[in-house]
Design a protein that fits this description.
The chain has 318 residues and is of the alpha/beta class. It has helices at 44-56, 72-83, 105-117, 136-148, 162-173, 192-195, 198-204, 232-235, 240-258, 265-275, 287-294, 303-312; strands spanning 10-11, 18-19, 23-25, 61-63, 89-94, 122-127, 152-158, 179-185, 208-212, 279-280.
Amino acid sequence: MAETPALKQLELGNTGDSYAPLGIGAWAWGDRIVWGYGQGGYTDDDIKQAFEASLEGGVTFFDTAEVYGSGQSEKILGRLLEASEHQALVATKYFPYPWRIGKNSVLKALKKSLERLGLERVDLYQLHWAIPFLPVERIVDKLAVTVKEGLTRTVGVSNYNVEQTEHAYARLAKQDIHLYSNQIKYNLLHRKPEFEGLVDKCKELNTLIIAYSPLAQGLLTGKYTPENPPPGVRGRRYSGDELAEINSFVNLLRRVGENHGGKTPSQVSLNWLICKGTLPIPGVKNMRQTRDNLGALGWRLEADEIALLEEKAPQLDH
C-alpha cells in the first residue's frame, strides 16, 4: 500500500507558527517515582540524544510541567534548549495546589517555570487540573493574565471534562483569548473522552486535544506481556488477563502495520491519534524510542483500519 504525503501541520493559534502533528512529553525527564530517573534505566545523555533526534526528525513540540520531577523536567529541557541550534515550541503547566490559588499564583508559577526553562515566554501555558471546589472561571481569569503579560503565546487546560472545558472557553473568549488546547489521557485503550463527548466538544470549540499517555504508558508498544508486566506501580495496575488481552490487540496493531511497510504497534497507535485530529505527546527516554515515534509521521491509516482498531481495542479505564 502506498504511503501518503506527510500529514498536515498544526497551527499554533494565530501566531503564524506551525509544527508536526506529533510532540514529545517530558514527564519522565527528572521523574524518579514513576519513571525511575537516576536509577540506572536511562541517563541525561540518553535524554539529550532523544531530544536532538526529535528536532532533527521535525518534531519540535515539547510538553513539560512544573511538577514533573519537582521542576527537574523543566530544568533539563531548559538546558537542552540552550545548547541546541534548533527552534522548539515549549508547553508547560501550572499545578493548582489548594494552598496556592491566590490572586497572582498562576503568574508567579509561570515566572518560576520560565526561570527553570531559561525562557522569556512559553508557547503554551496550561492549567494541569481543575479545582473541584473552585469555579473554573476564577482560575481561568488568572490564566488569562499570563497572556496579557506576554509570558505565553497561547493557553490551554488539562484533564478538563466537557462542562469545565465549555466554561473555560467561554470565560477566555470574553477576554478575546482562545482556549487553544485541552490535554487529556487518550489512546486506543482509553477512549473515554470520545464516549463522554469531550472529543466532539473540543472539535466544536476548535480546541486542540493534546493526547498524553498515547501509548498507554508502554502497553501499546508490544514490550509487555503477562510474563513481563510493566515495572513498578504501573505493573500492579493490570491483571494477567488484561495484559493478555492487550497483547492480543498489539498483534492486531502489528498486522495493520504490515499493510504500511512494517509499521510498529507504537507507530500505528500514534497514527490513529493523529488521524483523529489530536496531538499525541509520547514520552521518550532514549533515541531508539524517538526514532520509533517518528515513524508515525508521513502516512495515514485507512478508514477501514481505523474502524477495525476501534472495534477490537479493549477498554481499560483505570
